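I had to read the description of the data format several times before I understood it. In essence, backbone conformation is discretised, so a fold becomes a row of integers matching the chain in length. I therefore recommend that a typical entry be quoted early in the introduction. For illustration, here is how one protein appears when written out as sequence plus structure tokens.

***
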Amino acid sequence: MATQSSRSAARIMMAPAVFVLLVWMLVPLCMTLWFSFRDYRPLRGGDLGFVWFDNFVRFVTSSSFWPAIFTTLLIVGGVLLVSIIFGVLLAMLLDQPMWGQGVVRILVIAPFFVMPTVSALVWKNMFMDPTNGLFAHLWRAFGADPVVWLSDVPIFSLILIISWQWLPFATLILLTAFQSLDSEQLEAAEMDGASPLARFFYIALPHLSRAITIVILIQTIFLLAVFAEIFVTTGGAFGTRTLTYLIYQRVLESQNVGLGSAGGVYAIILANIVAIFLMRIVGKNLDR
């Protein structure tokens, strides 16, 4: 059992790391708040002084703000839906004994380690290109006109690209949960005459609920800030401009750091609202 002196020593040893972490987080946040109250245009006159809440009002009343919020939530929801459904199916498949099981698992997980920019370029040029892409050749083989994916169905295309990269993460977490499932319970249910679907919905799926909530929580935090895939593929056109991309346009394209910083504050607020909501769900599932 830890004594008072050992706990004090542990706090002292942890203090430098905690201090560095706080500084690492607080300094950018404080700078964002500072610039959000100022009219700061580095290449257009520099720092023009305080404007207080004008940047916040201008950003939220922009005609691009609410469509960007909707697009952000639509992409996040679509990727989560694909990741959970296909993640469960892949986890069930990889949990079955097969030849070369270790190699298959590595190949399934591999896309998670590909950089977002690289994966987006691969999908854009090798698969979705309307002239030389793999999908275009398949469409022509069946006598159909190729689909211009990134302009005809841009949101679906982005969900497909981002899901390809995040599906391995969900599969890995869900596979771990599957492997901890009591096989004797499944065998008993099978002996009692339960069908495979009944065993899945009444035994396996409730067991996966905690893993699913963890996947949703972690992926949502990262997906709210998705940027590289949009930048590489559509450039924010065709209704694919998310909140993160809108902030980028305000800061770099419009050279208005103050307005972009106000958007950053809104992004922090949105992320915290979603995180609190998800944490309540996770807490309820973990208490079961």
